[in-house]
Design goal:
- Chain A: InterPro entries: AAA+_ATPase, ABC_transporter-like_ATP-bd, ABC_transporter-like_CS, ABC_transpr_MalK-like, ABC_transpr_MalK/UgpC-like, Mo/tungstate-bd_C_term_dom, NA-bd_OB-fold, OB_MalK-like.
- Chain A: It comes from Paeniroseomonas aquatica.
- Chain A: Belongs to the ABC transporter superfamily.
- The complex is a heterodimer of chains A (349) and B (319).
- Chain A has helices spanning 42-50, 92-102, 107-121, 136-149, 166-183, 194-200, 218-223, 228-233; strands spanning 4-13, 16-26, 31-35, 57-62, 65-66, 77-80, 154-158, 186-191, 203-208, 211-216, 240-246, 251-253, 258-259, 269-274, 279-295, 300-306, 309-315, 326-331, 337-340.
- With 349 residues, chain A is an alpha+beta fold.
- Chain A folds into two domains: 4-226, P-loop containing nucleotide triphosphate hydrolases (Rossmann fold, 3-Layer(aba) Sandwich); 237-340, Beta Barrel (OB fold (Dihydrolipoamide Acetyltransferase, E2P)), CATH 2.40.50.
- In chain A, the strands form four sheets. Chain A has a six-stranded mixed sheet, sandwiched between helices. In chain A, strands 13-12-11-14-19 form a five-stranded antiparallel sheet.
- Chain A starts with a strand and ends in a 9-residue tail after the last strand.
- Chain B is an all-alpha fold.
- Helix content of chain B is 68%, strand content 0%.
- Chain B has 14 helices and no strands.
- Chain B has helices at residues 19-25, 27-57, 73-79, 82-113, 120-132, 135-145, 152-160, 174-201, 206-214, 219-247, 251-256, 268-276, 282-290, 292-308.
- In chain B, helix 5 (120-132) crosses helix 8 and helix 12 (268-276) runs antiparallel to helix 13 (282-290).
- The longest helix of chain B has 32 residues, at 82-113.
- Chain B starts with 18 loop residues before the first helix and ends in an 11-residue tail after the last helix.
- Classes of the chains: A alpha+beta (349), B mainly alpha (319).
- The interface between A and B is medium-sized, with 28 and 24 residues.
């Protein structure tokens, strides 16, 4: 096990810069999720960590050792690929034992190590099968088994669940997290799915167009997003972000709607953020016209309009309103996020 | 909705199919009509000549005289014919050495082309050239290259480099002529092998190489454990075709040496032609041609069963 230090790392493909000085500190045994929209550079960063891409500038250290010029096989890492990259012409056993075979390990050692990993993942019955004969979830497990057998300092996962169906994804998500709790190996996990990030991570690193927007524990990112990008990216359904300005006895949206401001709010606020789940139904609330009702069972999502401003609301209670009717809603004052208009930075509230 | 104008009234006409369309609605008619052109062409240009060839092999037909059924007499005669044995030997030797050369060089070329090279598509086009040029043209070019007096290789060796004092005798005696023909055949065959194997290489996912890189493999190990086993099915098919084309080769040998010197470079195909057309012994020529069939069947079965299907390709799932 080891720490990972990424210090001001840059990456350019020819003239195109994809990473502009990224720094991330990863503690020993930590589960770090790199999350961001596609093209933000998260996979590139992971591949640089693995040694599959070279580092244009900056440093990456695994443990005390700077690995910029260390070839991938000597970095003591193991990676799970998005398409699993299982060798199709080898059985599950041979796939998992391949690194030991290359290192000329004796047969007994291979059997013991593969057996140990197979037991952890419940693959004992499948060792003689070929990858083609496995289901998606089983292949996923074999890919993880191949990584476990290596006994690496760091596990790298590159969007490992994106090829699975929704139900299996939730199941494998729990399995990977449980595996991490058992093995306590430092893990770097790349995904574009913020729910995966929220549920699995000790620390989330939100990236956007080659920069780190915010890094921290999941709930900190949820409670105190430092800028508009993180505010909009973390949380589902996404936070309502309303443009406008302070004035007229509250926050006046561009469409004319007036939303209440918490006490001591900065007068510079240009964007008003409120999460759908932080809007309540209150008889004394602001009247709003219902546009759309989406019941999911556990909650009801309602899109309502105040003047020209649409707000997505998520109510725990069942709402019987129909489109066109009027409901009365009120943001929870302590949970309103205010951002500066130009820079998008969070204003202390 | 007040702005919409009403469309003029019309009655939807139901199309009545014509008699031809109705006839083609009958499935058996459609099937026969679609099959007829292909079957007719194959029967005329493939089945009939093949059948006639096999029939002639059992007769003593000569040009100008229809022969009589002689049973296996032609084949019995061939078994005692040193020229036939000579052609069998050279056909096998020629096929074996040329196939080995084509695959060694073709695989090497395919591996090179699979890297990210500048001007990749231009290089690929250039590599296909020997295959695009008609065989007879390239054979004539090789004839010049191997000419006793004007050979460019001799010119380079004698006049430019000065490593020899006399011209090289490429086609004047048996073994040099045999090797020269093999070299020409390899040159012609490389593009087919290289391009086919390149297509196979490109189906191997790059992430497998990355996974192997992380697993600690060397370049040779990646070739040995990833590239080669995954290429094997395509290799088998390409090799089957290559063996068939090489074993039945005619043009190159006939254009460069005509089987000489002293019949030393006859392949079975050139010998069959020599006997049958200029020699006039149609029955015997046909028997020589038919005698190629067992060799071809054996080569095909060998590469099909020996190399083609692997267990890992079978099983469930299509992805």
């Amino acid at each position: 096990m080891a720490t990972v230090d990424i210090r001001n790392v840059m990456k350019a493909f020819g003239a195109v810069k994809v990473l502009h000085g990224v720094s991330v500190d990863i503690a020993d045994g930590e589960f770090v999720v790199l999350v961001g929209p596609s093209g933000c550079g998260k996979s590139t960063l992971l591949r640089m960590l693995a040694g599959l891409e070279n580092i244009t500038a900056g440093e990456i250290a695994i443990g005390p050792r700077v690995v910029n010029n260390v070839p991938p096989k000597d970095r003591d890492i193991a990676m799970v690929f998005q398409n699993y990259a299982l060798y199709p012409h080898m059985t599950v056993f041979e796939n998992m034992a391949f690194s030991m075979k290359l290192a000329k390990a004796p047969r007994e050692v291979m059997e013991a190590e593969v057996g140990r990993a197979a037991k952890i993942l419940g693959l004992e019955a499948l060792l003689q099968r070929y990858p083609r004969q496995l289901s998606g979830g089983q292949r996923q497990r074999v890919a993880m088994g191949r990584a476990i057998v290596r006994n690496p300092q760091v596990f790298l996962f590159d969007e490992p669940l994106s090829n699975l169906d929704a139900k299996l994804r939730v199941q494998m998500r729990a399995e990977i997290k449980e595996l991490h709790q058992r093995l306590k190996v430092t893990t770097v996990y790349v995904t574009h799915d913020q729910i995966e990030a929220m549920t699995m991570a000790d620390k989330i690193v939100v990236m956007n167009s080659g920069n780190v927007e915010q890094a921290g524990p999941p709930l900190e990112l949820y409670d105190r997003p430092t800028n508009l990008f993180v505010a909009g990216f973390i949380g589902s359904p996404a936070m309502n972000l309303v443009k406008g300005g302070v004035g007229g006895g509250g926050f006046t949206a561009e469409g004319g709607a007036v939303l209440p401001l918490p006490e001591g709010a900065s007068g510079k606020a240009g964007v008003y953020g409120i999460r759908p789940e932080h809007i309540q139904l209150r008889p004394d609330g602001i009247p709003a016209t219902v546009v759309l009702v989406e019941p999911t069972g556990s909650e009801t999502q309602v899109i309502a309009r105040i003047g020209e401003t649409s707000l997505t609301c998520a109510f725990r209670e069942r709402v019987s309103a129909r489109p066109g009717e009027t409901i009365h809603i009120m943001p929870e004052m302590g949970l309103v996020h205010l951002f500066e208009a130009g820079s998008g930075r969070r204003l202390a509230a | 909705m007040s702005a919409t104008t009403t469309a003029p009234a019309w009655n939807r006409v139901r199309q009545e199919p014509g008699w031809l369309a109705r006839v083609f609605e009958i499935k058996i008619v459609l099937v026969l009509a679609c099959l007829f052109p292909a079957v007719a062409l194959l029967m005329t240009f493939l089945t009939y000549p093949l059948g006639l060839g096999i029939f002639l092999a059992f007769t003593d037909t000569t040009i100008g005289r229809s022969g009589q059924w002689v049973g296996l007499e032609n084949f019995e005669y061939l078994l005692e014919d040193p020229l036939w044995w000579n052609a069998v030997f050279y056909s096998v030797f020629y096929t074996g050495v040329a196939t080995f050369g084509k695959f060694a060089l073709g695989l090497w070329l395919a591996l090179l082309l699979n890297n990210n090279l500048p001007l990749k598509s231009l290089l690929r086009a250039i590599i296909l050239l020997p295959w695009i040029v008609p065989t007879v043209l390239s054979a004539i070019a090789f004839w010049w290259i191997y000419d006793p007096q004007f050979s460019i290789i001799s010119y380079l060796a004698v006049d430019v480099l000065g490593v020899r004092t006399t011209n090289i005798d490429f086609l004047g005696s048996a073994w040099p002529a045999r090797w020269s023909l093999i070299a020409a055949n390899i040159w012609r065959g490389i593009p087919f092998v290289a391009i086919s194997l390149l297509a196979g290489l490109q189906t191997i996912s790059p992430s497998l190489y990355e996974a192997a890189l992380l697993d600690g493999s060397t370049g040779w190990q990646r070739f040995r454990y990833i590239t080669f086993p995954m290429l094997l099915p395509i290799l088998a098919i390409v090799m089957t075709f290559s063996i068939i084309f090489t074993f039945t080769d005619f043009q190159l040998v006939y254009a460069i040496t005509r089987g000489g010197p002293v019949n030393s470079t006859h392949l079975l195909a050139t010998l069959a032609f020599q006997r049958g057309i200029p020699g006039g012994q149609l029955g015997e020529g046909a028997a020589i041609a038919v005698s190629m069939i067992p060799f071809l069947v054996f080569a095909t079965l060998f590469s099909y069963f020996g190399l083609a299907r692997r267990k890992w390709q079978q099983g469930e799932g299509n992805d």
